[in-house]
C-alpha cells in the first residue's frame, strides 16, 4: 500500500494468521497478506518465502521492493513452534532485503527467547539485580540465547522490533544496540487502565469503596505503579506484596513493609493484581489467597502474556481468584480449549488495533481512522459478566445509554 508517498507492506510468517491479517486490515492495507507473500515449503521440507509479483513483469528483478518498508508480524501459536517461527521470520526478512526493501520492522508481541536473557558468565546479560553464584550456575552449560537471537535478527535484516511489555532490560538493550531502528516496547498499562475505568470488572471502584492496585512481588512493582499512575483516581490505592520462595514451586506472600497501603486497607475493596507474565501461577495463587484472607472483595489478575499450561490452569482455577484479564499477545489463549476450566473467569483484550496504531505512528503514518477505542474484548459466555458486556456493546453500536 502507498500512504503519503510511502510504500508499506504488511506480511505474516503464516498466510492464515488472524493476528497478522487484523494488523493489515487496521493499517488499511487493501491486499490480503496471503496475496503479497507466498510461504512455500519444498518437498525436502525447506522453507522458502517469496514476495509475489507479476510473472510477466521482467523489469526490476530483485528490486521490486525498492523504497518500501516491510512489516513482518509473528505471533506464537499451536501450529508452529517458536523455533520454526524464528526461522520463518529470518527468511521472510532476508527475502525482503534481497529484493530491495529499505527497512524491515518485526512485530513480535511476545518477543521470543526473552526469558533466556542471561548466560553463565558475568558479561552474559545486564539484569537489574546483582547476580549470585547460584544464578550463574543456573545457566551453566546454556547459550546466551537472547544475544544470539538479537544478532540473528539484525543479520537477517531486521531494522527495528515492536513488542509488548518486554520484561527484560537485557533484551531491550540488545535490540537497541544491534538494530538501527532499535526497539519499541509497548506498555499495555494504558489498555488495562482504560478497561478498569470503563468496565464492571471491579465494582468497588464505582460504588465508593475504592480499589487497590497490587504488585505480587518486587519485579511487578514498576508495572503496577504505571497502571496506578494511569488510573490517577483518588479512590485507588497501591499495595506491595513481598514474595518468599521456599522452593522452585513453593512460595509464600506477605504485605511488604514498604507498601504504600497497609493490610488494613484491603478489607471490603476489590484488588487488582498485575504482572507481565504467568508461567506456573504459584505466586499469583498465593498472593490472591493472602488478599482474600485479609478481606478483599473481588480479586482480579491482570497479566500481559498468558502461557496456558496445565499447571497454570490448575493453579489459577482456585476460588481465591475471581477473574483473569489478559491480552492476546499469545493468540492461542483465545482458544476455549486453551482456557480450559478458566474460561468462566477469563477475559481477553485483543490488541491488534492498539498495536496497529503504534505501528503507524512508528512509521510516521496517520492513524486517525482507528478512532478512540484501543482494543476489543473476547469473553466466553460462561463468564458471569458476559451478558452485561454484550448489552454494553449493543449500546455502543447504537449510540444509546
What's this entry about, in short?
This protein has 401 residues and is an alpha/beta fold. Helices cover 31% and strands 23% of the residues. The protein has helices spanning 18-26, 82-97, 133-138, 145-156, 169-178, 189-198, 203-206, 221-231, 282-293, 310-315, 336-339, 352-362, 386-398, and strands at residues 2-3, 6-12, 37-41, 47-51, 68-73, 103-107, 160-164, 182-186, 211-215, 236-247, 250-255, 270-278, 299-306, 323-327, 346-350, 376-379.
List keywords for this structure.
single chain, 401 residues, alpha/beta, Rossmann fold, 8-stranded mixed beta sheet, 13 helices, globular
What does this structure look like?
Helices cover 31% and strands 23% of the residues. It is α/β, with parallel strands linked by helices and 401 residues long. The protein has two domains: 185 residues, Rossmann fold, CATH 3.40.50.2020; 189 residues, Rossmann fold (3-Layer(aba) Sandwich). The strands form three sheets. It has an eight-stranded mixed beta sheet with strand order 11-10-9-12-13-14-15-16, with helices on both faces. β13, α10 and β14 form a beta-alpha-beta unit. The longest helix has 16 residues. It is globular.
Amino acid at each position: 500500500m502507498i500512504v503519503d508517498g510511502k510504500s508499506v507492506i504488511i506480511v505474516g510468517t503464516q498466510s492464515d494468521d488472524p493476528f497478522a491479517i487484523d494488523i493489515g486490515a487496521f493499517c488499511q492495507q487493501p491486499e490480503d497478506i496471503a496475496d503479497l507473500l507466498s510461504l512455500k515449503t519444498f518437498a525436502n521440507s525447506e522453507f522458502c518465502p517469496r514476495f509475489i509479483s507479476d510473472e510477466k513483469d521482467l523489469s526490476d528483478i530483485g528490486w521490486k521492493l525498492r523504497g518500501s518498508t516491510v512489516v513482518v508480524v509473528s505471533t506464537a501459536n499451536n501450529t508452529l513452534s517458536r523455533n520454526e517461527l524464528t526461522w520463518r521470520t529470518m527468511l521472510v526478512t532476508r527475502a525482503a532485503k534481497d529484493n530491495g526493501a529499505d527497512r524491515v520492522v518485526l512485530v513480535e508481541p511476545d518477543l521470543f527467547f526473552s526469558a533466556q536473557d542471561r548466560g553463565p558468565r558475568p558479561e552474559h546479560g545486564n539484569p537489574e539485580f546483582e547476580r549470585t553464584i547460584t544464578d550463574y550456575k543456573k545457566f551453566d552449560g546454556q547459550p546466551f540465547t537472547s544475544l544470539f537471537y538479537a544478532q540473528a535478527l539484525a543479520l537477517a535484516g531486521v531494522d527495528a522490533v515492536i513488542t509488548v511489555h518486554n520484561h527484560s532490560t537485557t533484551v531491550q538493550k540488545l535490540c537497541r544496540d544491534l538494530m538501527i531502528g532499535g526497539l519499541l516496547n509497548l506498555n499495555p498499562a494504558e489498555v488495562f487502565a482504560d478497561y478498569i475505568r470503563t468496565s464492571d470488572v471491579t465494582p468497588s471502584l464505582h460504588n465508593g469503596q475504592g480499589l487497590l492496585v497490587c504488585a505480587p512481588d518486587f519485579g511487578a512493582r514498576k508495572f503496577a505503579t504505571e497502571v496506578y499512575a494511569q488510573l490517577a483516581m483518588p479512590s485507588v490505592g497501591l499495595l506491595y506484596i513481598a514474595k518468599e520462595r521456599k522452593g522452585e514451586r513453593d512460595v509464600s506472600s506477605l504485605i511488604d513493609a514498604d507498601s504504600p497501603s497497609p493490610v488494613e486497607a484491603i478489607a471490603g475493596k476489590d484488588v487488582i493484581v498485575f504482572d507481565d507474565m504467568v508461567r506456573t501461577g504459584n505466586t499469583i495463587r498465593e498472593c490472591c489467597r493472602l488478599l482474600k484472607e485479609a478481606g478483599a472483595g473481588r480479586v482480579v489478575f491482570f497479566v500481559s502474556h498468558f502461557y496456558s499450561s496445565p499447571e497454570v490452569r490448575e493453579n489459577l482455577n482456585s476460588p481465591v481468584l475471581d477473574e483473569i484479564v489478559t491480552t492476546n499477545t499469545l493468540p492461542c489463549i483465545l482458544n476455549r480449549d486453551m482456557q480450559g476450566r478458566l474460561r468462566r473467569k477469563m477475559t481477553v483484550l485483543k490488541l491488534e488495533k492498539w498495536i496497529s496504531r503504534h505501528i503507524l505512528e512508528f512509521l510516521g503514518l496517520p492513524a486517525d481512522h482507528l478512532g478512540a477505542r484501543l482494543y476489543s474484548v473476547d469473553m466466553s459466555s460462561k463468564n458471569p459478566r458476559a451478558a452485561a458486556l454484550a448489552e454494553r456493546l449493543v449500546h455502543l453500536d447504537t449510540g444509546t445509554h
